[in-house]
Structure formats: structure tokens, C-alpha cells
Write a structure and sequence with these properties.
The complex is a heterodimer of chains A (324) and B (337).
Chain A (H helix, E strand, L loop, with lengths): L1 H21 L5 E6 L5 H19 L3 E6 L6 H14 L4 E4 L4 H13 L4 E4 L4 H7 L4 E3 L2 H14 L4 E6 L5 H16 L3 E6 L8 H14 L5 E4 L2 H13 L7 E5 L3 H9 L4 E4 L2 H18 L8 E2 L3 E4 L3 H9 L4
Helix pairs in contact in A: 2-11, 3-4, 6-7, 8-9, 10-12
Chain B lengths: L7 H7 L2 H25 L1 H26 L7 H18 L4 H26 L3 H24 L3 E3 L4 H7 L2 E2 L3 E2 L1 H18 L1 H11 L1 H6 L4 H27 L1 E3 L5 H12 L11 H17 L10 H24 L9
Antiparallel strand pairs in B: 1-4, 2-3
The chains are: A alpha/beta (324), B mainly alpha (337).
Amino acid sequence: MKTKMMKAVLLASVMAFGATAALAEGTVVAVVGGKSDDPFFAKVKKGIDDATLVVQAHGGTVNYLMLQSYDNLGGDAANLVRTAISQGASVIAVPDWVPDAQDEAIKAAQAAGIPVILYNAGGADKAKELGAINYIGNEEYTAGLAAGAYFATHGMKNVICVNTVPGAQNLEDRCKGVADGAAKEGGVSNQLPLPASAFGDPTAVAEAIKATLLKDTTISGAVTISAADANSAATGIEQAGLTGKVALASFDMDGAGLDRIKAGTQLFAVDQQPWLQGFLAVTMADAYVNYGLAISNTPVLTGPGIVDSANIDATLAGAGAGYR
Amino acid sequence: MSDPSPKPSFGSLLRRPETGSFLGLAAVFLFFTVFGGSNFASLTGAASWLNVAASLGIIAIPIGLLMIAGELDISIGSMVPAGSMTCAIISGHFGLPIAVGVIAALCLGALVGLVNGMLVVRTAVPSFIVTLGTLFAVAGLTLGLSVLITGTTSVSIKAGPEAKFLLGHFIGGIYQVTILWWIAAAIFWGFVLHYSPYGNWILAMGGDKVSARNAGIPTERVTIFLFMCSSMSAAFVGLSQAILYNSAQVSAGQSYIFNAIISVVVGGVLLTGGYGSVVGIVLGTLTFAIVNQGIYYTPFDANWASLIIGVLLLVAVLMNNTFRRMALSYTPSRKVK
């Protein structure tokens, strides 16, 4: 695993050196990113690929430095930033997943005169602290707020937030956002934390949701922290005989969820619109380093994008083409 | 519980492997009937734990038999998603008839089980290590091939009415049809373990493998057969979940490893092998499912769920152990009745 990864990094750097040598004068936008077999990053990558056309039109190149695994996220991402420095990148776009591990490398890039833009992870405060160009991405708490408010303004005043990995900070932020968003509109939301013995067992998740809905009949909405859990929740609501009475929503989405929104059995999904993250990170990095252009809003939030009956047809078309 | 009277029928009943697990089940059922209110005891409440127990139970029985025979199979954690992804890719992504997907998933299960069994028999490496290897290998294959073929890690599948009826519908709107498959599996395995020569062979292998082989039991064939059955059961659960939930994910299923082993142990099977029964495993699975799902009917904060699950399972196992000790240390006071 390690040697394979080192080989890949070595190969990538050799290839990149070749590329920089060939295009000595062009801008090199280095992008550190996740594995393309991760469905989320596949969409980010599509945005990066589309933005590459713009960079090429400006005479530059995009170099995607891909993580080989997520086992050592912070350390590996920091190494990829250092690889980008040694390749002579003109600008680096990188998600700040593990600030403690990555910030040193990001500062090293800036010390070498390479501007950095944060995307996907890190947040506005981090971008400001590091002196990065901007932060482009999602904020989990804000996404939760939108979900909570959507429920409450549509008449669902008592909502559960189904958390299959309680304790994970980003998921806790989502559920806390739901609670605060609902509270602002006069609603209430409690978290339903499920033990690890239920994770990955759709029946256990579905039955837990069913039992909760039967126990407290005032609950009128349920939101799940992942698209797969929404499939279980849909069954749970159906089993409780509450289809149409309890509205379903999910953070993120998959094909089955979009079909439900189309069919009217799911109210909405909260999307962080990954394509935008990749596309905007690369085009903004390119515009900044070539022409000194920068968006004055900080952060640039690509989410929450709400997918509901109003925009489901366009979303389905986007999903078919790999954009959503 | 304390029986000073030497009633032979009652005494022998107490010493049966499943008595302890039955009392454990009764204890947790009583606990949740008291704290869970009318919803828990209702038909919908029963469906909650029966549905969860069914898919877990189908895997737990062959795992239990393997444990009785002194082996372990943890690769089922990968076989569940492998089975559901195989079925979803073939019948969902490529749109082939659902039967092809189902058969392919089961064949994959048989193949992985065969590899597990052959490796265990031929190399004499402990089955825990062998199946730990295949656990990762199959997970990697599932992820790699899914991404290579479909480009995603989650595939949706729309099964026809026949497949839905057989594998993915709810009886009376609330009971998963999987429950019937579980009952069928329990009857089949009950027959194998308690009424066919295989049963005694399996028990003998768990007691002492070398002596069992010396006594003429085809231990290698039985071991391979059991591994194939556990993998196929996991694949079956995977494909029926894909059909039931209309989608398959690469990552699901790891929780089945621990949950199945817990169910088997709660059901009175010795971790060291050589002792246990199918009825006990069924009762253990029910106990585990009730403990896991009952919590949502109680007024307790769900944050405490894991704690309560842990404590109740310990109580159930301790109860079980007491009875097993009683059974294993039993010596008839008179030689002949």
C-alpha cells in the first residue's frame, strides 16, 4: 500500500515535471483532492475537469494531485501540498481536512510565494487565519439551519435528525443546525442517535425510526445524515403507516432519493453541490493568479442547495450526466 | 430456577443448551414490555425486532454452526454488500433479469466460501485470520469492481413484482418476507444439526478435530461445506436487502460480523466450539434484536442506547452461562435409571 502510493506520487511528480518543463511559462494550478472512486469527489473532479478548459484557454494547466487512500488524510494531503510546491505550482487549491497536519505545509507554500485557496473543507475562519485567497465549500451547520428552517416553514414543527454516526463533528453540526433552524421558525428538533450496532444494517435503522415515530406521534419530519440512511428512513416511515404524515429529508442524495422526491414521497434533500466546489476553486485560483481577480465575499458557500419538487427535473438531468 | 427436586424431566430441560438463552430472551422481553409500553408489545412493535432478527438470523445460524465446529467466518461482513452489489449491478445497472442477479450473487457467495474453506483446510491457518483476509479482499473487490463498472459506490435496483414478492415485500404491510426465509433456514439447519449425521460430526469437530478425523468423519468436507453455507447466507441477505430497499451500497454490512457473533454467543454456543443448538441461536438472535430495537420504544434518551444494550447482553449471557455450567458439570447420580 505504502510503496504503491509512493510509486504513484513519484510517477505523478515525474509526469508533472515533464509537463512543467514543456509549458515553462504557463500557469500551473495544482489541486489536491479526494479519490475519484468516491462518488462525492467524482463530482468535484468533474467540476475541476470542466474548469480545466478555462485554464487551458488562458495558456495554463491543471495538475490534480489525488489521495490514494483516506487512511492518513491529513498527512497525505500535507505531502501532496509539498509535492505541488516542489513541482513549481503557480497556485494551490486544497481542502483543509486536518488543519493540525496540513497548516504547516500550506504556510510553506505561501512562504514560497504560492497563493493558496481552500475548498471543500476548512471554513472561512481558517481561510482568514492562513491568509488564503478564499474558502469555497459547504458549512455543515449552515446546511443544517437550512434544513430545519425548510421543515418548519413547510409546517413540520417537530423533526428528528437521524444520526447513524453520533459523535462525528460534521454530523453533530448538521443536527445542531437542524435544531437551531427549526427553533428560529417556531419548531423543535431532537437528535436520534443510533448505536454502532445499527450502522450499515438498513433494517435496524428503519425499525429504529419506525419505533421512534410510533412512540412520539407529534413528530412530523425526519432528516437523515446520509443518502443511504434516507432509504432506510423511507421504509421506516412506510412501516409506521405514516407516509404522507411524516415528511422525509436527507443530507446528500442518491438515485433512490431523487426518485422519491420526484414521486413525492420525500420532501427535499440538502446538497452541498460538489461540482461547484471543484469548478469554482480552479477558475478562481486561475483568475487570481493570472489577473488578480478575487470574489469579495468570504466564504463562497456552494451549499446548502435544496433539491425539492421545484427543481427535481433539472437535478435528475444533472445526476444522469454526473454533475449532481 | 433452583430445583432441589430431582425431577428428571425438568432437570434435563434445564440442562438443554437453549434453556439459558430462552430465559435471557424472556428477561429482556419482560424488561421492554415494562418500559416500552403498549407500542412495544403491539404487532408493529413485534415487527420491529422480528425484521431485524430475520436478516441477522439467516447469517447467525451458519456462523453458529461454524463456531460449534470450532471455526469462525468474519468475511460475511463483506459478503453482505458483495451480494447486494452483485445483484444490483447485474439486475439494476445492466438490466438483466433479477434471477440472474440472484443466482450470480449466490454463486459468488459459494465461491468465497469455497476459498475460505479450502484455505482453512489446506493451510491450517486459523479461520479467524483466513476470513479476516477475505473480509478485506472481498471488500476491496466489491469497491474496485463497482467503481470500475458503474462509476459509483451506490447502485439502485428496481425488482419486478415476483422478486419483490419472494424477497422484498412486507407481509401484512409490516413483516418482512425475510422472516419466512429465516424460519425456513432455521428448520433446515435444525434438521442438519440435530437429526442428520452431519450434526454429530459438527459437534464432534468442535470438541476435538483430530479425534473426529480419526473416527472417520470427513472433517475437511464438512468444514468447506459450512464455510460455503455461511458466505451464501450472507450473500442471500445482501441481495434480499438490495431488492427490499431498492438500492445497494458498497460499505454496508460490517456490523453483521459482531452482531452475528453476539447473537450466537447469547444463544448459548461456546466460543471454543463443541456445544450449542440451532434453537439457542434463534433465541439469541431474537434477544439481540429485541435489546437493539426495544430501546426506541422506551422513554430512555437514545444516547444511552449502547450502554443499555451492553448491560442487557451481559445479563443474558451470564444467565446463559449459569445454565451451561449446570449442564456441563452434570453427572447422573445413579449409573442406570
